[in-house]
Design brief:
heterodimer, A: mainly alpha, 80% helix, B: mainly alpha, Rna Polymerase Sigma Factor, Chain: A, Arc Repressor Mutant, subunit A, 2 domains, 77% helix, globular
């Protein structure tokens, strides 16, 4: 026994002859109980006759007759454009990326390094050339935890190493200064102890004993 | 779809993917051209646009045929591509029309060339225009269900796969669509009688 809703859902397929033999028999055995649906079936069949007669399929056939030809044409155009694009993607983009990378490394990397050197050397030059070089220098060393005595020792050692501190004007010499100053900042005090004679060492020990720590 | 046509399709797909054969591509286009074109026409209501979209659909489909896994039928796959492209096209046209960058097309402005009887031609032409206009009055789901069932004669299972609607829902939609179209056709007939 089918419900009215089920019969309604079967109605269009029955009207257009699309039901299976079994469903058709079921529908026909029960439709008599719903006269309004029977009327609807007849109305649908009569109204849709014109659509059935129209042969929409032949209209579509006419409209799409050359479609495969147009598709083939566009497909070959599409492929040639695609191959150009593919070539660009495969070779052009990586090459461009490498170029950009190299340029940026060369330009910005060198520039930064150069900036650092220039700014440090400029700073050092202005420090050395200034009247209060020793005061400023000592401030730096006080800041870094070294005493003024050690600073003076370093400066002496610098001059002893043949570097004319007052006459440093170019980068190469400044680099020499940098190279000379950095190892000296670790003051070779302990190495100097090796050069002391026994007497000098004894005097040093006596002095240490007098110092309150 | 019969087992034989399914096998034929699988063979065509394999042939095109492996060799890029023009014959295989042509066979696929010929087999589905009317279905794709009719679907596009329902969405665009314009023959030229439907033609453009149908071409695009096949280009896209052939381009990505190697990705086709066969989880659904080719028809379902083509239907989805067609609907997506047609909707995009419609949106684009609406946008351009909004800014008046292109003229709004008057749909259905072509004349059928293949008919020997001018009276029949005119009658067919008028009704063809009416039919497209008629279908456009239905909500999209009802229209698509009706067209796929009535014109394309697809099974409810196939339509369900295409539209993502349950079979019960499709049957209800189909009945509603037929009822509405009957009403519109009836009104049209009455209108014609009144004019006469």
């Amino acid at each position: 026994m089918k419900t009215r809703k089920e019969l309604e859902q079967m109605l269009p397929d029955y009207a257009f002859g699309r039901l299976s033999e079994k469903d058709k028999a079921d529908f026909e055995s029960e439709i008599n109980e719903h006269q309004d649906l029977l009327v609807e079936v007849k109305e649908v069949q009569s109204l849709f006759k014109k659509i059935d007669d129209m042969d929409f399929d032949s209209v579509l056939n006419d409209k799409t007759r050359n479609l495969h030809y147009k598709v083939n044409q566009r497909l070959s155009q599409h492929k040639s454009v695609l191959s150009g694009t593919a070539y660009l993607i495969r070779f052009g983009l990586p090459a461009a990326a490498v170029m950009v990378l190299l340029v940026s490394i060369f330009r910005f990397g060198i520039q930064n390094e150069s900036n650092e050197v220039v700014s440090f050397s400029e700073k050092l030059t202005s420090l050395i050339e200034s009247d209060n070089f020793y005061d400023t220098y000592s401030e730096y060393y006080d800041y870094s935890g070294l005493s003024t005595v050690e600073l003076n020792q370093e400066t002496d050692l610098l001059e002893y190493a043949g570097v004319e501190v007052d006459k440093i004007n170019n980068n190469q010499e400044l680099n020499n200064v940098v190279n000379a100053v950095i190892p000296m900042s670790e003051i070779n005090f302990y190495n100097d102890l090796d050069d002391l004679s026994d007497d000098e060492f004894q005097i040093l020990l006596e002095e240490i004993q007098n110092v309150e720590i | 779809m019969t087992a034989t046509s399914l096998e034929l399709n699988t063979e065509l797909v394999r042939q095109y993917v492996e060799t890029g054969s023009h014959e295989a591509a042509n066979s696929l286009v010929r087999q589905y051209r009317k279905f794709v074109y009719a679907t596009a026409l329902r969405f665009t209501e314009d023959y030229d646009d439907a033609d453009d979209i149908a071409q695009e659909v096949f280009i896209k489909a052939l381009d990505s045929l190697h990705k086709f896994k066969g989880n659904s039928s080719i028809k379902t796959w083509l239907y989805r591509i067609t609907v997506n492209l047609a909707l995009n096209h419609k949106r684009k046209r609406k946008f351009l029309n909004f800014f008046s960058l292109t003229e709004s097309k008057v749909p259905n402005d072509e004349i059928l060339v293949d008919s020997t009887n001018p009276e029949k031609l005119l009658e067919n032409k008028e009704f063809e225009i009416n039919l497209i206009e008629l279908l456009s009055r239905l909500p999209e789901k009802q229209r698509e269900t009706f067209a796929l069932r009535y014109f394309d004669e697809l099974s409810y299972e196939e339509i369900s796969e295409m539209l993502g609607t349950s079979i019960g829902g499709l049957k209800a939609n189909y009945h509603q669509a037929v009822k509405k179209l009957s009403q519109i056709l009836k009104n049209n007939n009455d209108g014609v009688r009144e004019e006469i």
